[in-house]
Design a protein that fits this description.
Length: 415
């Protein structure tokens, strides 16, 4: 680190926004301000103003500030279904793509098991004639009339953005691009997302769902980034903003606008990386780690075995975006919930722990079970538990339930 450079890390949650400021002289300052869900990113600017007033640093330090931001803005919007109203354009005969999903239900031995509700309702799905073969050759030409009529229908139904998911477009995107050109030429006010540009991989359902997520969260993420960048310019911070990606790395906010889905799990993934770093500082390089963070919207739990991050080759998000395997529980209702519409492996529970503020370390998990049946001493000893924020008895019970599941070798689906 440069002695004259200051560093800022922010984490936007559903309730609070946390800021950690590291000065060139080695001083560490932590700040917490209320989040602004109606204006994502505004809380970061309010926190920066508070830091400036409190520390009184010179303008030169602020101009060259190195800053990285993570958030659950996109994650919470998807969980709460507050994204854009999305329409879907598919190949003829594939209108029920999101309804059929992968047929298998999450828990086939339970009578109350249900597949998640599609992110795009069937009423907002339209078919377009034309077919590309598995080898990328054109079997039937695209019907331009179908594309125009479908787009006009979606606009009339209130769709804000439409995704184009045509058969085998990963092999040849010509038809998807043709649809976009025809709709733009017709002057139809409908924004389009092409699945071949978001995630050009086989398997229409997974590609479609990932594209739907990208379209759903796009307006929120774009507003967040635009508000953040404009506020930084007004505060004369010249260095570009970086946003944490779902793989724990970072990307320039400006380029993230092209594919906002890469930051879907920005905060959770960055937290897991931070927890691993904290464990390494504590001398637990080869330990099994479980991380927990309880926020206002969900409780985030992640597992790392012997300091190795586990990736799933079966997940489109893991193959395309490389984020970790994760599970989450609702801290308020106390019951497992599923991230609806996400193409996770057989609807695997999603999200990890956003643990940038992780500093408390516990050698076992018995104390977290909160009166429930605890793990045996031998099982508990195998785990090093890192706990960030507490959320009362319900959060502790949820954590205990998940910890017992993992500790006794809970059944997991294989890739």
């Amino acid at each position: 680190m440069n002695e004259n450079t200051c560093y800022l890390g922010t984490d936007v949650g559903g309730t609070f926004t946390d800021l950690v400021f590291y000065t060139g002289s080695g001083e560490l300052h932590c700040f917490k301000v209320p989040s602004t869900p109606a204006r994502p990113g505004a809380s970061i600017l309010e926190g920066i103003d508070e830091i400036r007033q409190t520390l009184g640093l010179d303008e030169a330090a602020w101009r060259h500030l190195v800053h990285t931001h993570s958030s659950t803005v996109a994650t919470n919007a998807l969980i709460e279904r507050k994204g854009a109203r999305v329409g879907l354009l598919v190949s003829s005969g594939f209108r029920d793509l999101f309804e059929l999903q992968r047929l298998a239900i999450p828990h086939p031995m339970r009578f109350d098991s249900r597949r998640p509700q599609p992110l795009v309702p069937r009423a907002l799905v339209r078919e377009i004639r034309g077919r590309i073969g598995a080898d990328g050759s054109e079997i039937d030409p695209l019907d331009e009339g179908d594309a125009v009529a479908a787009a006009r229908d979606l606009v009339a139904l209130g769709a804000e953005i439409a995704i184009v998911v045509l058969l085998h477009s990963y092999r040849n995107p010509a038809h998807e691009r043709h649809v976009q050109a025809v709709i733009e030429r017709g002057g139809i006010p409908l924004r389009l997302e092409l699945s071949s540009e978001v995630w050009a991989q086989a398997r229409e359902y997974e590609r479609g769902v990932l594209t739907a997520i990208n379209a759903s969260i796009r307006p929120i993420v774009e507003g967040y980034v635009e508000r953040l960048e404009q506020g930084l310019v007004e505060r004369k911070i010249e260095t570009p903003a970086r946003v944490a990606r779902s793989n724990g790395g970072a990307e320039l906010a400006e380029t993230m606008r092209r594919r906002p889905v890469v930051a879907l799990l920005s905060g959770p993934a960055a937290g897991v990386a931070g927890a691993a770093a904290a464990a390494q500082d504590a001398g637990w390089e080869a330990a099994d780690l479980m991380t927990l963070d309880v926020g206002g919207t969900s409780a985030d739990i992640a597992v790392e075995r012997r300091a190795h991050r586990r990736l799933s080759a079966a997940d489109p998000d893991d193959r395309g975006l490389q984020h970790r395997r994760r599970r989450w529980l609702d801290p308020v209702a106390g019951s497992d919930r599923r991230l609806k519409g996400r193409p996770a492996q057989r609807r695997r529970r999603s999200r990890a722990g956003l643990l940038w503020r992780l500093r408390l370390a516990h050698p076992g998990i018995d104390r977290c079970v909160s009166g429930r049946r605890p793990l045996g001493a031998g099982t508990a000893a195998r785990w090093q538990i890192a706990v960030a924020d507490g959320a009362g008895a319900r959060g502790a019970r949820n954590f205990g339930r998940a910890a017992r599941h993992v500790g006794r070798g809970g059944r997991r689906r294989r890739d």
